[in-house]
C-alpha cells in the first residue's frame, strides 16, 4: 500500500499534463522520490509529501513554479533540478522557504551560465550547504546524507569516508548489473543445459548420417 512506501523511482515514465498517474497524497511516508526524464513541465500537480527528504527531478522541462515545493514538501533536504529550463535567480528564489534544504543541483540549467552563479545562489539560499555537489569553499558533498549530520563536527573524517565507499559503490553496481542481467542468466539458460543437449544430438545425428551414408555408398 502507498502508506508504507518510503522510496519511489519513476524515472523515464511518461507524464501527462504535468502529472504522473497514481502519484498522490496517499504516499504519506515517502522520503525519496525520483522523477527523472518524465517530461514534467510543472510541479503544480505534485502531491503533498510532508516526509519527503530527497527529490530528483533531473532532465525535465520545469521552468518555474518552484514555490510549490515549499508548500508540499517542506522537509526537503536534497533537490536535483539538473537539466531543466531554469534560467534566472528569480525562479530559484522560491526555494528560500525550503528551510531544511542542504543540497541543490542545477547542472545543465541555463542559470549556471550567469556570471557569479555560485555566489549568487549561496547568497540567495542561505540555508543550503552544497550547490552542484560542492560547498562554498569547493569542498565536495559527502556521498550519503547520514554522514552529513555527524560530518559537521569534524570534516576530515567525513571526507575520508566519502571517498572510497563512493567509488566502491559504483563499481559494485556495474558488476551487479552485468552478472544479474547479462552473463549470469544467459549462461544458465542458453549456455549449459541447452547447448549441451544440442551438441550431443548434433554429434549423434552426424555420426549416424555419416556412417549410414558411407555404408549405402559402399
Automatic annotation (TrEMBL):
<keyword id="KW-0963">Cytoplasm</keyword>
<dbReference type="GO" id="GO:0006325">
    <property type="term" value="P:chromatin organization"/>
</dbReference>
<dbReference type="GO" id="GO:0042981">
    <property type="term" value="P:regulation of apoptotic process"/>
</dbReference>
<keyword id="KW-0539">Nucleus</keyword>
<keyword id="KW-0143">Chaperone</keyword>
<feature type="region of interest" description="Disordered">
    <location>
        <begin position="133"/>
        <end position="218"/>
    </location>
</feature>
<comment type="function">
    <text>Multifunctional protein that is involved in the regulation of many processes.</text>
</comment>
<feature type="compositionally biased region" description="Acidic residues">
    <location>
        <begin position="134"/>
        <end position="190"/>
    </location>
</feature>
<dbReference type="InterPro" id="IPR045081">
    <property type="entry name" value="AN32"/>
</dbReference>
<keyword id="KW-0677">Repeat</keyword>
<feature type="compositionally biased region" description="Acidic residues">
    <location>
        <begin position="200"/>
        <end position="218"/>
    </location>
</feature>
<dbReference type="Pfam" id="PF14580">
    <property type="entry name" value="LRR_9"/>
</dbReference>
<dbReference type="InterPro" id="IPR032675">
    <property type="entry name" value="LRR_dom_sf"/>
</dbReference>
<protein>
    <recommendedName>
        <fullName>Acidic leucine-rich nuclear phosphoprotein 32 family member</fullName>
    </recommendedName>
</protein>
<comment type="function">
    <text>Histone chaperone that specifically mediates the genome-wide removal of histone H2A.Z/H2AZ1 from the nucleosome: removes H2A.Z/H2AZ1 from its normal sites of deposition, especially from enhancer and insulator regions. Not involved in deposition of H2A.Z/H2AZ1 in the nucleosome. May stabilize the evicted H2A.Z/H2AZ1-H2B dimer, thus shifting the equilibrium towards dissociation and the off-chromatin state. Inhibits activity of protein phosphatase 2A (PP2A). Does not inhibit protein phosphatase 1. May play a role in cerebellar development and synaptogenesis.</text>
</comment>
<dbReference type="GO" id="GO:0019212">
    <property type="term" value="F:phosphatase inhibitor activity"/>
</dbReference>
<keyword id="KW-0433">Leucine-rich repeat</keyword>
<dbReference type="GO" id="GO:0005634">
    <property type="term" value="C:nucleus"/>
</dbReference>
<dbReference type="GO" id="GO:0042393">
    <property type="term" value="F:histone binding"/>
</dbReference>
<dbReference type="InterPro" id="IPR001611">
    <property type="entry name" value="Leu-rich_rpt"/>
</dbReference>
<comment type="similarity">
    <text>Belongs to the ANP32 family.</text>
</comment>
<keyword id="KW-0156">Chromatin regulator</keyword>
<dbReference type="GO" id="GO:0005737">
    <property type="term" value="C:cytoplasm"/>
</dbReference>
Amino acid at each position: 500500500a502507498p502508506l508504507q512506501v518510503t522510496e519511489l523511482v519513476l524515472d523515464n515514465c511518461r507524464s501527462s499534463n504535468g502529472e504522473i498517474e497514481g502519484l498522490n497524497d496517499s504516499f504519506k511516508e515517502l522520503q525519496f522520490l525520483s522523477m527523472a526524464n518524465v517530461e514534467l513541465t510543472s510541479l503544480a500537480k505534485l502531491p503533498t509529501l510532508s516526509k519527503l527528504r530527497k527529490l530528483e527531478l533531473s532532465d525535465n522541462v520545469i521552468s518555474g513554479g518552484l514555490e510549490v515545493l515549499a508548500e508540499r514538501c517542506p522537509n526537503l533536504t536534497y533537490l536535483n533540478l539538473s537539466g531543466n529550463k531554469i534560467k534566472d535567480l528569480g525562479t530559484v528564489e522560491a526555494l528560500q522557504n525550503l528551510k531544511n534544504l542542504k543540497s541543490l543541483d542545477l547542472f545543465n540549467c541555463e542559470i549556471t551560465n550567469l556570471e557569479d552563479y555560485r555566489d549568487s545562489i549561496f547568497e540567495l539560499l542561505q540555508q543550503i550547504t552544497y550547490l552542484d555537489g560542492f560547498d562554498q569553499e569547493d569542498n565536495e558533498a559527502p556521498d550519503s546524507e547520514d554522514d552529513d549530520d555527524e560530518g559537521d563536527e569534524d570534516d576530515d573524517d567525513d571526507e575520508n569516508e566519502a571517498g572510497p565507499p563512493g567509488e566502491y559503490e559504483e563499481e559494485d553496481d556495474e558488476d551487479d548489473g552485468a552478472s544479474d542481467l547479462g552473463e549470469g542468466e544467459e549462461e544458465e539458460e542458453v549456455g549449459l543445459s541447452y547447448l549441451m543437449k544440442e551438441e550431443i544430438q548434433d554429434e549423434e545425428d552426424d555420426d549416424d548420417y555419416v556412417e549410414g551414408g558411407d555404408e549405402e555408398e559402399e
